[in-house]
Design brief:
The structure holds three protein chains of three kinds.
Chain A (H helix, E strand, L loop, with lengths): L12 H9 L4 H24 L6 H26 L7 H19 L1 H24 L5 H20 L4 E2 L3 H8 L1 E2 L2 E2 H19 L1 H11 L1 H6 L4 H27 L1 E2 L7 H11 L11 H20 L4 H31 L6
Antiparallel strand pairs in A: 1-4, 2-3
Chain B lengths: L14 H16 L6 H26 L7 H19 L1 H24 L5 H20 L4 E2 L14 H19 L1 H11 L1 H6 L4 H27 L1 E2 L7 H11 L11 H20 L4 H18 L6 H7 L3 H6 L8
Antiparallel strand pairs in B: 1-2
Helix pairs in contact in B: 1-11, 2-6, 2-9, 2-10, 2-11, 3-4, 3-5, 3-9, 4-5, 4-9, 6-7, 7-9, 10-11, 11-12
Chain C lengths: L2 H19 L9 E6 L5 H16 L3 E6 L4 H13 L4 E4 L7 H10 L4 E4 L10 E5 L1 H17 L7 E6 L8 H13 L3 E7 L4 H14 L5 E4 L2 H13 L9 E6 L2 H8 L5 E4 L2 H16 L13 E4 L2 E4 H6 L3
Parallel strand pairs in C: 1-2, 1-3, 3-4, 4-5, 5-11, 6-7, 6-8, 8-9, 9-10
Antiparallel strand pairs in C: 10-12
The chains are: A mainly alpha, B mainly alpha, C alpha/beta.
């Protein structure tokens, strides 16, 4: 057993040698473009096989639906690259969306969006403070925040949902510009902002550094505390924006809005190719993954798949997509083991 | 909680235990019912349900993973067991239920070790798959066993508490005195190093997931025994409760250490808080908030395990950081 | 970022092919779309059964989507229905407040909207078939009072266990119950939520029995919780009919069995299957542009009575 090192992590030396030997770095390619490719394939197959999928209304609906999880996933991508995550985005979304609807009804659209983003940001800062200042591990801190904010939302709202159907407000979640749903356009814009943040700002570099090797980052002078705080703030801000759009889409918002949202967001980011271990990630992957999930739900509905079977299908797709990488690695190793060892 | 990587702590006065005593004392003062034998038994029973799956989760976390599918596994096992009680009797049904849980766990292990999918995602996917399977198996209906009161042996009296204690003792022994237990801790501590010294991590992880599945199944069986019903909706959210009690108990999420008594105290703490708030007729709106505040209060008392950010952020010099060793492992 | 152009090209390609791909002749059969709250619950399974059977009997195509207890899914899945060219929409909404975008989208395509129970969210639906949750709570209160009157030694204490807090329409059951029972001179010693879950109903009932050993009756907002509570009563050495009178809501199979087995006192039965059939009849009328008869014309409501079911009723009827 000892002369056949089984590789579980990508950083072992044998694997590195393989990578250098290969002309094309399949890992990197898959990570960056894998899901986008899968998405395109799925769309083509669906368009050919499923009636009404390629209908313009339907495609528009799919893109629209992908934006709500997607916008929050942009923020979450930053968090996961930094090596952490945020379980409270679901509750933050409910509170922000409720505030957005309430403010929109009394003060107008712009104040509503600002308020929602602010609320999201405040929750983000709360999370950041718990993690950085009180040094509580992110899992616990954000789990606690999740329950706390959820409870507070119930108390503030007295369990009631707020409703508002003002045309100016609901246009944002339901309208289109040139045939493309507005939320999706905002989603793309957010992704662009996310890419700029990650690749063109010092903050972005710090995020990658903290995620790859926190001790090295510290030694190199990266302001860890500030960076992590801003990471959580980022998650909160994006979540707040997405929440305002969701409130607009639903003409309403209240406590208990979308339980399980946080797991969907994290799954989207990971499906998109960003590793939970941190240090690397793909914003493009996140976009593609968000669209892929929405597409999947849509295809299942269009094909009249039984409701219970749908649950199994979604889980299977998630597992399959993430197994591809592992299977490919194992095949690669097996193929390479057959070759005479070259050192 | 100081440690030398891979150690398992026994009798150390932990913050959870202290919080438990304090909260218990407060409730005892606020309502006379709290300290009655009947009530304490109820508390122990509901604590045991979470404790059993929590103990399995402790092993998973100690090995560097976690399992988000335990709620679905509990439901699925409950459905399978309830559906065969009329045919094969109570004890065989219970055995079958536990075997089902172990099987689900085995599949989790397969996905994590052989397909190399991160545990978070693997078990997240299984969460929906197994829940769907339970619903498909029961066709969304309830399986009820009115009158089959012999199935209730699982949930009546002190049985759940005894089961939880037995499992706790067994797991404690496993972690401290067997090679397998040490391998679990080593795997959680540093996977690559463990492999290098010859630990068969694949086998270890696979077994751990199977164990988690089995404990989840047992919790599910107890829950369905309480209500003599099997259905696909059982135990939604059990996974978060399980992870919460493990973490409360002091087992760090980074792996390599385990606190079995901590998990027990954590389960008791959550059960006590729930029970006390119910006895005091506190509205559901305030229950969640109170629970969280109490838990965060308990957490802030602990200093043994802190997030790697916190530790790094508070360190002044390079030397301190270097002395800190592998980040999360030392106090 | 070379990928977006590819994505865009694919999109354009698909749009160009769209006429060829989704071309269809005018459908001979009419299509009914049913969007249901959550197929995990017996209540909605019965509703779906009634709706499906009636649709097929009337010769329609029938499509179902499951909202899976999520308002976001409610909107997106129902949108999927609307995009499939249905002729009428029947919806049992998880969150009536979020019906706005659905009704607007349906109206834009001239699709009539029939709401089946839960609530209409103040929107422009064509008709809503609704069982009166508030009244159901009142009936439960009256029944409990009637039963307890026969037990002079019973304390005038009752408990109320409600569904998950976000189910605001189901909350009316407990609200109606508590208001009425207080009018009748009883004290509500505990009002707690068991999150609509059976095993939590068990746990909460156990705690209530600990705190108030002399509680005489428990009303639960749904049947799963009621059956759980009845089990808790049994495990405390008492009986769910003779000692602590347990009443549920829905009329689920599991409750009817418990009532027959004398483990539970009563339930408030809704008739989801009937309501399903009714909605299809209403949809037919709307598709034929007929006028409808309402119970409450202003709110376009049609009431479906809820019925009290006790062991006596079950002995007589064959279900």
């Amino acid at each position: 057993m000892s002369d056949r090192p089984q590789i579980l992590s990508m950083s072992s030396s044998q694997h590195e040698k393989d990578r250098r030997r290969a002309a094309i770095d399949w890992d990197l390619l898959w990570e960056k473009f894998g899901i986008a490719t899968v998405l395109i394939l799925v769309w083509i197959v669906a368009a050919l096989g499923t009636p009404r999928f390629a209908n313009l209304d339907n495609l528009s609906s799919v893109l629209r639906q992908s934006a709500f999880v997607g916008i929050s996933a942009i923020g979450m991508t930053v968090a996961i690259i930094a090596g952490t995550f945020d379980l409270s985005v679901g509750s933050a979304q409910a509170l922000s969306a409720w505030i957005a609807v309430l403010v929109a009804a009394h003060y107008g659209v712009v104040p509503a969006f600002i308020a929602a983003v602010l609320v999201g940001g405040i929750v983000g800062l709360l999370n950041g403070s718990l993690v950085v200042l009180l040094r509580i591990p992110a899992f616990i801190a954000t789990l606690g925040t999740m329950f706390l904010i959820s409870g507070l939302t119930f108390i503030f709202t007295n369990g009631q949902t707020a409703r508002f159907n003002g045309k100016d407000f609901v246009w944002w979640g339901n309208g289109q510009l040139g045939g493309i749903p507005v939320p999706f356009l905002i989603f793309l814009l957010c992704a662009l902002v996310g890419v700029v943040i990650l690749h063109r700002t010092p903050f972005g570099r710090y995020v990658f550094a903290v995620g790859s090797n926190i001790r090295a980052a510290h030694v190199a002078g990266v302001p860890i505390g500030r960076t992590v705080l801003c990471v959580f703030l980022t998650v909160g801000l994006f979540t707040g924006l997405g929440a305002a759009l969701l409130g607009s889409r639903l003409y309403s918002a209240g406590p208990g809005l979308e339980p399980g949202f946080e797991l969907n967001v994290i799954a989207t980011v990971v499906l998109g190719g960003t590793r939970l271990a941190g240090g690397r990630g793909s914003m493009l992957g996140t976009i593609a993954a968000a669209i892929l999930f929405a597409t999947l739900a849509n295809i299942l509905n269009l094909n009249h798949v039984d409701a219970f079977v749908q649950r199994v299908a979604v889980g299977l797709v998630l597992l399959l997509a993430l197994s591809v990488e592992g299977i490919r690695q194992r095949l690669f190793e097996r193929w390479n083991r057959r070759k005479p060892p070259t050192n | 909680m100081e440690s030398r990587g891979g150690r398992f702590t026994w009798f150390r006065p932990s913050p959870v235990a202290v919080t438990l005593l304090v909260v218990g004392a407060v409730f005892a003062v606020l309502t006379p019912t709290f300290l009655t034998l009947n009530n304490l038994l109820n508390v122990c029973t509901s604590a045991s349900v979470v404790a059993i799956v929590g103990l399995g989760m402790t092993l998973a976390i100690a090995s560097g993973n976690f399992d988000l599918s335990v709620g679905s596994t509990a439901a699925f096992a409950g459905c399978i067991a309830m559906s065969v009680v009329p045919q094969i009797g109570v004890l065989p049904a219970i055995a079958l239920g536990i075997a089902t849980g172990a099987l689900v766990g085995w599949v989790n292990g397969l996905i994590v070790t052989e397909l190399r999918v991160p545990a978070f995602i693997a078990t997240l996917g299984m969460l929906t798959i197994v829940r769907g399977a339970a619903l498909i198996y029961t066709r969304g209906r309830d399986i009820y066993l009115f009158g089959k009161t012999d199935y209730k042996i699982l949930s009546s009296g002190v049985t759940p508490a005894l089961l939880a204690l037995a499992i706790a003792l067994f797991f404690g022994f496993l972690l401290k005195h067997t090679r397998f237990g040490r391998h679990i801790l080593a795997t959680g501590s540093n996977l690559a190093s463990a492999r290098r010294v010859g630990v068969r991590t694949t086998y270890v992880l696979w077994s751990v997931f199977a164990i988690v599945g089995a404990t989840a199944a047992l919790s599910g069986l107890i829950l369905s025994a309480q209500v003599l019903t099997g259905n696909g909706r059982l135990a939604t959210g059990l996974e978060l409760s399980a992870i919460a009690v493990v973490v409360l108990g002091g087992t760090p999420l980074t792996g390599g250490q385990a606190s079995i008594p901590g998990t027990l105290f954590g389960s008791l703490l959550v059960a006590v808080i729930n029970n006390g708030l119910n006895l005091l007729n506190v509205s559901i709106f305030y229950q969640n908030v109170t629970l969280v505040l109490l838990l965060l209060g308990a957490l802030s008392l602990t200093s043994g395990w802190t997030s790697k950010f916190g530790r790094i952020a508070s360190k002044g010099s390079v030397a301190d950081v270097a002395k800190g060793g592998d980040g999360a492992k030392s106090a | 970022m070379k990928q977006p152009p590819k994505l865009l090209t694919a999109l354009l390609l698909i749009c160009a092919l769209q006429p060829a791909l989704s071309g269809h002749a005018a459908p001979a059969k009419k299509k009914i779309g049913f969007s249901v709250y959550d197929m995990q619950y017996g209540f909605f399974q019965d509703m779906e059964k009634g709706t499906k059977e009636a649709s097929e009997a009337a010769g329609y195509d029938y499509v179902l989507v499951d909202q899976k207890s999520s308002e976001s899914t409610m909107v997106s899945a129902t949108q999927d229905l609307i995009d499939q060219g249905i002729n009428a929409l029947i919806i049992s909404p998880f969150k009536p407040d979020a019906l706005g975008p659905i009704v607007d989208a349906a109206k834009a395509k001239k699709i009539p909207v029939v709401v089946d129970d839960i609530g209409g969210g103040g929107t422009d639906y064509d008709v809503i078939v609704i069982s009166d949750n508030d009244k159901g709570g009142v009936i439960a209160a009256d029944q409990i009072a009637a039963v307890l009157k026969e037990r002079p030694s019973a304390a005038k204490k009752v408990a109320s266990i409600s569904c998950e807090p976000s189910a605001v329409y189901a909350a009316r059951r407990n609200a109606g119950f508590e208001k009425r029972i207080k009018e009748l001179g009883y004290t509500v010693v505990a009002s707690l939520s068991a999150n609509s879950k059976q095993e939590e109903g068990y746990k909460v009932a156990k705690d209530i029995l600990s705190a108030h050993p002399d509680v005489a009756a428990i009303f639960c907002g749904n049947d799963p919780m009621a059956v759980g509570a009845a089990q808790a009563v049994a495990d405390s050495g008492k009986n769910g009919v003779k000692d602590v009178y347990v009443v549920g809501f829905n009329g689920d199979e599991i409750a009817l069995q418990a009532i027959k087995a004398r483990q539970m006192g009563a339930t408030i039965q809704q008739v989801p299957e009937e309501m399903g059939k009714m909605t299809v009849q209403l949809a037919t009328k709307l598709m034929n542009s007929e006028k409808l008869q309402y119970n409450n014309a202003e709110k376009r409501e049609i009431y479906v009575p809820v019925k009290l079911i006790t062991a006596a009723d079950l002995g007589a009827s064959s279900k």
